[in-house]
Amino acid sequence: MKIDPQKPADLSAQIAQAIRSAIISGELIVDERLPSEAELSDQFQVSRPTVREALKRLAAQSLIRTQRGASGGAFVNRISFEDAYAQQVTTSTLLLSMNAVSFDTACEARFALERACAPLSAQRRTADQLATMRAEIFRQAQPGLTDEAFCASDVAFHRALVDGAGNPVLSYQLAGAVEAMQPLMNMITFTARSREEIITLHNQIADALEAQDADKVDTTLVELENYTRKLACDVAQQRRKPA
Amino acid sequence: MKIDPQKPADLSAQIAQAIRSAIISGELIVDERLPSEAELSDQFQVSRPTVREALKRLAAQSLIRTQRGASGGAFVNRISFEDAYAQQVTTSTLLLSMNAVSFDTACEARFALERACAPLSAQRRTADQLATMRAEIFRQAQPGLTDEAFCASDVAFHRALVDGAGNPVLSYQLAGAVEAMQPLMNMITFTARSREEIITLHNQIADALEAQDADKVDTTLVELENYTRKLACDVAQQRRKPA
DNA sequence: AGACTTTTAAATGTCAGACAAATAATTTTT
DNA sequence: AAAAATTATTTGTCTGACATTTAAAAGTCT
């Protein structure tokens, strides 16, 4: 983590990459303090604003945090599951919205991932997680709920399902994927009839999880996936033929 | 996307958040040009270095790209799967290494995700993807291969499996998870015997995919997961008892 | 001596103004 | 009309300064 040939790209990007590599390689460890901005600018032979731009890049990735005052500075940050989760949601959401990913593709991915943790969840779900799911189902049955609120509750329900696996790595990966799909889901208008159908399936999933019946959870998730895709398909057809 | 109360946090962070929100909400669309740094500093009533720090934060997340010269500026970037993938690998790798995630937890997550796309892969894998898998298996059988190279080939093999599902969203999510585990996998020392065993399982997976036998792929992946965990367990025990 | 207050120093946050370099559009020249 | 030179715009970088925050050091009082 030293050199900067002034050949191609921005200096701040190069410096950020050098420090990033040092963190990833373990050369810099968690909570270690980086040299001060003045020292870094001296070390890299650039001005302080350039160093600062590099540090801001790293801060945007949650790789460092900064503290003002005496004995302040930039410290290597321990990335938390929350940090990672938030970044994943932002990235995934934009990825889906900017790349014309079809509803079917996203939906397939989402349910495939969810089914991946269903067996673990059936085995390990806690009473607390079951209660969360029941509560969300209850909320979904409330009349007068907006489509957005219904979708948000849907996400919370599936989030609880995923957390039931008791594997933080899975939770981080899957919850991000599920949440990133919400904008696409929000495009569906849920009739009273379709809400009823979804709630029925949600209840079946909760029941199966309570009974620790992994196979039943899986088949119901497949049913839910098919139904969700059918709903989206109907919406798309109605948009094409608004007669 | 306008206001900045000078109350709590860094101005550059606030400005970055304001622009980020505008992008996520669709207020700013792909390839749209942001105002120049001078205009932004005027608009937000801050200095140009502060604006620049905000823009570098966004650039670090691949939300914008910049171009110098007349008619240059900052443009809303279309996040590519490659960008998102790279970011996910960085984040996930650090998340695992910094949070004392156990090998078992990471391994369980990895294989759960991989099994999620196995049925799709069995159905849709192309001849090209099968060829990639066979080539990696061949490479893994070479004598004199370092443990690191063996692991890298293992990642490539599983990457091909995941790509076989033909779902870019799944590929992006899963390949990142698999690759993030590589540093943990690298801690295992593979004996000639264990390599042989893994290669046998890889061959069985490739055969099953070729035969489009989803069940067989699944059971073999379970076997591979159990074997991998056993290897890691042995390594851990040997470390404890170096007698 | 011990607890409280004040001062100091170090560090990040912000600003202002300047110049360099790249690049597209415009103007001039051939 | 084509090529070359000029110009204007914009990002990249530098210098130097001041503001703000914060922990530690110094000082003061009981």
Explain this structure to me?
The structure is a homodimer of 243-residue chains. With 243 residues, chain A is mainly alpha-helical. Helix content of chain A is 70%, strand content 3%. In chain A, helix 1 packs across helix 3 (48-60), helix 4 runs parallel beside helix 8 (168-180) and helix 6 packs antiparallel against helix 10 (192-210). The N and C termini of chain A lie far apart (65 Å). The mean pLDDT of chain A is 91. Chain A binds a DNA duplex (30 and 30 nucleotides) through residues 10-12, 36-38, 46-50, 52-53, 66-74.
Order of helices and strands of chain A: HHHEEHHHHHHHH
Under CATH, the homologous superfamily of the largest domain in chain A reads: GntR ligand-binding domain-like
Beta fraction of chain A: under 5%
CATH architecture of the largest domain in chain A: Up-down Bundle
Average the pLDDT over all residues of chain A and give the rounded result: 91
Integer tally of domains of chain A: 2
Q: How would you write the strand order of the largest sheet of chain A?
A: 1-2
Helix content of chain A: 55-70%
Protein chain pair with the most extensive contact, residues per chain? A-B, 56 and 55 residues
Secondary-structure-based class of chain A equals: mainly alpha
Count of extended strands of chain A: 2
Termini gap of chain A: 65 Å
Low-pLDDT stretches of chain A are none
Question: Helical segment tally of chain A?
Answer: 11
By CATH reckoning, the class of the largest domain in chain A would read Mainly Alpha
Q: Main beta sheet of chain A, described?
A: 2 strands, antiparallel
Please tell me what the overall shape of chain A is. Answer: elongated
